[in-house]
Amino acid sequence: MSGGPVLATEGLVVGYRRRGREVVVLRGVELAARAGELVAVVGPNGAGKSTLLRTVVGAQGALAGRVLLGGEDVGGLSARERARRVAVMLTEPVDVGLMSVEAVVALGRLPYRSWLGGRGERDQEVVDRALVDAGVGSLRDRVLSDLSDGERQRVMLARALAQEPAVLVLDEPTAFLDVARRIELAAVLSRLAATSGMAIVLSTHDLGFALRRADQVWLVRGQSVTASAPEDLAYSGAIADCFAGENMTFDDAAATVVVADNSTPGATVRVDAEGRLRHWAEHAVRRAGCTPTTGDSSLTLKIEPDARWWVDGAEGVGFGALVTHLRKSGSTAR
Ligand SMILES: Nc1ncnc2c1ncn2[C@@H]1O[C@H](COP(=O)(O)OP(=O)(O)OP(=O)(O)O)[C@@H](O)[C@H]1O
């Protein structure tokens, strides 16, 4: 298996069996993830991301086709062998009662222990490293039920890392996190993929994260999955086709979907400012329905670091007042 994909699918059909009937969610799924790769699974709500991930880790059977972990069919692996190859962090809350963080993370070593054996030196080393890698070293003696959702999620990540899997699968790992923790976790996962040699496959609604950090994106839509480099999917318009709809467009620069501004274009405003001040002044100008420019224009906005501004013979303080003024006068000016 060396050099080959650590995770692959062949002719996979993903879905559910209900009262003897098959409900197909995805068909013809041909995917491969290699050691060290970070794969982002993206797609609209209900497209089948979670169902795909559950099938890939063997938590639900495939309707047809195969999932290969390290070249072996996941269906033929014992639970113990499977747990050594793939670790999973799903969105479902885990009930671990009053266990300490360290004890929960140590559960990740179970696939390596004999039924009677305790935790060995190597197990302890792996647990310690997993706690640090997931950024929860300082929480090791706390009781899991006392932690915040974000902290608990990191503990679950540490437990998954303690399994030392070849493939780590995470379903929406950033869902509960605030913006700073989300960026932090994204950085941790990118670093882990690059340094640990694990393949990390995660589903996310954060397109910016997927496009900036992933080596591959698996785009789930219309009962199929397209796998490609993020730039291919953005450049070809596949991501825009998938997400952009009425009043939504895909913004290349921001690498995300934005609300389309279909209002009548307002005036062009020359913005006389630099750096962050310029960025937020342009933001306000756009919000007012006008177009910021660095070139010549009959309207010039001058703005100072304390947000005092002058435009079109008027003056004021603060971005809110600026937007109000431009909406009243700017959009009709030329
Ligand atoms: N247990 C089930 N039985 C039958 N159909 C199901 C079951 N669970 C999910 N589905 C259906 O499968 C489809 C895919 O659901 P899934 O949860 O995989 O989507 P998703 O892409 O993860 O969505 P989201 O972004 O909202 O989390 C949906 O149409 C859903 O209704």
From TrEMBL:
Presence of the UniProt keyword Zinc-finger in the record: no
Single annotated GO MF: ATP binding
SMART domains assigned: AAA
PROSITE patterns reported for this sequence: ABC_TRANSPORTER_2
Keyword annotations from UniProtKB, A to Z: ATP-binding, Nucleotide-binding, Translocase, Transport
Domain ABC transporter: 7-247
CDD domains given in the database record: ABC_Iron-Siderophores_B12_Hemin
InterPro entries in the cross-refs: AAA+_ATPase, ABC_transporter-like_ATP-bd, P-loop_NTPase
Pfam family, one: ABC_tran
Stated name of the protein: Iron complex transport system ATP-binding protein
UniProt source species: Actinokineospora terrae
